Amino acid sequence: MPALIRITVAALLLAATAGSVSAAPAPAKAADALTPVMAGEFALQAGQLDEASRWYLQAARADDDAGLAERATRIALLANDDARAADALKLWRQRAPQSLAMRAAEAALALRKSNVAVARRELGALLRDKDDMGWRYALTVLGSGGRDPALSARLLDGFVDAGAIPDKLPAWLAFGGLAQSLEQSALAERIVGEAVKRFPAEPKVALLHVGQLRQAGNTEEARKVLDGLADAAVLAPQLRLAIAAEYDALRDPKQAAATLARGTQDNQTYGLRASLLAKAEDTMTLTLLYDELRKDASNPDPQRRLLLGQIAQFLKRPQEALEWYRGVPGGPQRTEARLRTANVLFELGRKTEAFTDVRALQADASADDEARRGAYLLEAELKQKDQDDPGEIDVLARGLAAYPDDNALLYARGLAWERRDRIDRAEADLRRILVTDPENVAALNALGYTLADRTTRYQEALELIGRARVAEPDEAAIIDSYGWVLYRLGRNAEALVELRRAFTLQKDAEIAAHIAEVLWVSGKQEEARRYFEESRKLDPENRSLLRALEKTGA
After folding, report:
1. Where are the TPR repeats (predicted)?
2. Where are the domains of the chain?
3. What's the whole-model pTM score?
4. What whole-number distance in Å separates Cα of residue 361 and Cα of residue 371?
5. Among 173, 167, 168, 103, CA closest to 137
6. pLDDT for 483-497, tens place per residue?
């Protein structure tokens, strides 16, 4: 149960029962609100957002509490119930007229209704507020509060025109990033240009400029700006990481590794350098790094030996990797080393040894439960790689015999059944998780998405995804699932709003494929092809992408 609900319910129960310990009667309004709050909570737990919206609005009307009005507003917005959201918002405004959160909700509702005047007024008030939270609320509303990203972009453009963006570096960085995530290259260029004028010597602004140039396809200019940050890379570890990430995004992992090589080094930096050099296929430099690090190999540092094992794998020296992993002396790194050993043996084709090692860890009474459960999950993964479907299921069954109702094992088996088109068994495992952990967001989302994608039980899917949305309303994977079930219900326009919002939050191949399919069946094939291409760039083997291409013939 969400914390806010627990507090509200507890307060109402206390008020309603106060008469049993005191002569003072329970406040009538609080008692009147108790029943609809409880009904609303039960509806929320069932994923019935429309019902929850109705009950919470009734509770907000029955009690003068601003928190109830806020809760009613948020649930109505989540349920896409604009009429009840407006009614609840009116109550909230009466009770907390100075609240920044209330003004943000008012702006979000206005955006959803395309009421530009009200949205501009409320967002402008948030941007002018002296509290540093004001512009952050405005940023959130523009980023995910509306149904039309183009409208958010137009409003943001107007605020730049009006000089309304606070003269603070974090604000300009954040709004520049928002313009990029909205895929508004001209607006992003404009905001970044303004930020460069205001903060000319600030490396973070230069990094924002690099991202804007890269997104606009101007990679040569982006590289020039990035090269100018060479000295800044030494100043602060976080800057160095960010600069290296931009070089990697420009498809130059070798230079990214060279950037990380500047300044003080630790195992994390060495590990990142190694992975980047492996990605660049720069065997010579990677070998030099390996030789440098193994000079200290006499010191039995578990983390360093793990790292040397990884680099040996990158260099395709599996026997040396095995020696490093087997030489990890103890501690939590020892467990990881044992798991990595099994992986290397499997890659060497020594599968019997790999499975013997991983089963030894499963049976090791001195190992902690997390390590032993991890060994079952690894063995199942190796069986999947070996295309041994019965073996994978058998491993997870053995794991569940050792750790009954373990959520991670049940979740892994549920996904394994789904890959085999055994939706009945996938559902059974995911529901077992929800018996012991009714608010497990991953299981709620996975089951809801599976029912939406692989069955016609769309209403059940909608309710399960609704429960996940209540817990994590801004999680891209959950928003994607919600958009997908709306599509399956034939509500294509609403589906596109949610799917685009999910893609703004996370550039993911599956989300892009979903957008492409909805666009295609909506008759917008040209735009659909662009999203299919985006999906291919991110993951050409994505299952949702392949199914969408087969379905549409794109």
Report:
1. 509-542
2. 175-252
3. 0.75
4. 8
5. 103
6. 999 999 999 999 999
